[in-house]
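Summary for the steering committee. The consortium agreed at its last meeting that each partner would contribute one worked example illustrating the joint modelling workflow. Our contribution is presented below. We chose a case with several input lines so that the handling of multiple components could be demonstrated. No manual editing was applied between input and output; the record is shown as generated.
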Amino acid sequence: MESETQSPLVVEMRGIVKRFPGVLANDHVDFDLRKGEIHALLGENGAGKSTLMNVLAGLYHQDAGSVLINGQLVSLSSPRDAIKHGVGMIHQHFMLVPSQTVTENILLGLDEPRFLLRLSEYDRKVEELGEHYGLKVDPRAKIWQLSVGEQQRVEILKMLYRGAQVLIMDEPTAVLAPQEIDGLFHTLRSMVASGKSIIFISHKLQEVMAIADRVSVLRKGKVTAAGIKKADITRQDLAKMMVGRDVLFKVDKKVQEPGKVVLSVENLQAENDKGLPALRGVSFQVRTGEVVGLAGVAGNGQGELSQVITGLRSSTGGKISLDGEDVTNRPALSAIRHGVSYVPEDRTHVGTAPNLDITDNVIMKKYRQPPISRGWTLDSAEAVRYANELKESYEIVVPSVKTSVRLLSGGNLQRVILAREISGQPSLMVAVQPTRGLDVGAIEGVHRLLMAQREAGAAILLISEELEELLSLSDRILVIYEGRIMGEIVGNAEDQATIDAIGLMMTGTPFEKIGKGTE
Amino acid sequence: MADVQPSPAPAKRWALPFNIRVEPRLTEPPRWYPLFTSFLAVVIALIIGGVIIAFVGGNPFASYAHIARASLGSVGVFSDTLVKATPLILVSLAASVAFRMKLWNIGAEGQFFLGAFGASAVVLIPLLPETASRWLFIPLCMLAGILMGALWGFIPGFLKAKYNVNEIISSLMMNYIAVQWNNYFIYAIWTEGGFQMSKVFTKNAWLPRLTDLSASIPWLRGLTVHLGFIFAVIAAVLVWYILFRSRWGYEIRLIGDNPQAARYAGINITRNIILVMMLSGGLAGLAGMSEITGVVHRLQGAISPGFGFTGIIIAWLSKLNPLVVVPVSILFGALILAGREIQPSGIPKMIQGIILVCLIASDFLLRYRVVIAKRGEEA
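What follows is the complete predicted structure of the assembly.
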């Protein structure tokens, strides 16, 4: 550790100010990075982490402040500028061309080769580079054939190929399965060992504690902790600096017996948008007063399952019953009439009508019934009253309910959706990633709302990629992999063995096999 | 933080004492603001038009004064303006309703022709004897016009809903069929002495005009504005009420803004596509009925100088608001009427075009804010 304090500064950012309309995203932020270290940048969504790093990567230009790379003052006006200075950023959403090979993607946008493309020569170079850093990936594979973890490796290789000395990783673990995260951490460590420096952006405390040498915390555009050594701080302290108050890591979950079966799914099959099988025989039940968590890496059929249950996608086989009534392949209206509420994953494209106002958005499932409906007309005064009521009780922060929802922040948008879905007193609630993209404070609020629904006797199917969220909220956890349920974890044992088991199931090992393997 | 260095200012090629920045709006502009920007856009358009008129050697003030006089200058010409505005209001409503749901019905022209055909059929088949009362003729003609227009809207609507046929192409093509359909009847079936037109309708099938009352109220003599204008205004209010105060209108707006959200809310989109295309077609059909029984009084070719297409422009200018459609249509009626006074084509068309461009450009101000700040203040 001592040698690290002496290693030279590769990046120094001083007094960075970046303003967006109505928001001060970075307020005189200082940040530095030493050679051969992993410096974690921690903060809630909207704290200004990505903004700061986009300044360093040349995507934004700061309004004030200066950036020094290797002790030299630089003005970065494009990512190309940044990479010239050895700074490369790996974005959360990969910027790869699916139909092209790994090598082609890596060469994309470079000046070399100039005209003739002798791919095999570059394939070899890419392969060598990969071996050097322990980033194994077939240079001739097409991007669409690769797993998310492999695609991420391609992104890293892309930056290394361009000569990056400083790598900025924007929430790199968000898309990975637990085992893949281990692999990533291994790669990161081997890269710093060979002299690269890494900035690791995250809002997940446990990952930061696992990988970082030093930690900086941003809150509301300001630095609340600057380059503290990991050894000098606890997880609780970090959380406090991140949100400005103590966070409840435990959710208040009352002990209660689940009641009768509300949702029953038997051998359900369905196809995805491309016509490929997404669900291959899924069976489970959800009872009143219980939360059933569905864990899985994105794209293993969770989205399709929620759509089939809510009537937005037709199934190709199997059976769905609500309250004992067969509702297989009934229209969405039938699910609504059965009291099924749905918090969709894609809030802007599915959950709301962006150009309509809050009132029009909250009555989406109520406009058919009195008092908002009066025969064929709508009682707009009643609708506005109802919207105001929800605005108060769900703390939607807007000047008026006449505001278009496209102007709302992520947290407020999610509150609008939750307000609408919960206020109908659902018998079954299907919540997909209800806390994605929200900050810690808002997440807590959503968790409390879900727990209140559980106590009120709703059956809840919680689909999430946040293992911690599933573990703390669910009564049972099902794990889905490639459209099949791999197994079920009952109770809320939060020991390492449980987490490992879920991780293994998420990557395709059935529950029964785990037992045999470990025993 | 005392040692913070000022960031190197980006090089400026030219320097004003203030900075102009454009920022996206993060809050809703006040309610009067859209009206203000539209008004500003029309004023700017007239100034640009004036400059061009002056450039070609005309006197812009005299030209504008002439346009105003020729369309709004007296009760007589204003009545003519309203006559021109009547079909425009109805076809613009037809376009507005469909566009609200992002259904691009550009077949209002054809639906207008079929509406005219439907009304004519009542008189010419004849479905009613010539001596029947006008209070029988008018509702029956209306019904026939609306139904034929709705049928012409139903076809592309059904194809869209069931087979996902692009309604832009199908509704456009239906226009040509409609014109030829009418031509067949005026050439072959209802031709009057070899001319390509039908005989004049019986007086009982005419929509009453103000001039018809001149026997008792002399100053109404020569005023050609007819009952169709009242239909148009009622239709505007009705369409507004449907869109903004009814369950169906809510569904239309929801589908228009986000069809996925509408599906999620349990709305049957297929049925709504067909119904809205029929409503849209019915309104355009009513326009055709009103024009044929209120103005032309016989079925003939060339009954529309492109009303269906002008209606698309008016609908957009009115921001698809049915109540705004009425004044905008009157403005366009005035431009069409006065345009002929100063030049058969050219300048009036040009002014229409400039107004359209300015109004579309003014939308920018609704989405963005222009901030003018003195230099050095913003850091």
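Chain A touches chain B through 51 residues (CB under 8 Å). The first strand of chain A starts at residue 9 and ends at 20.
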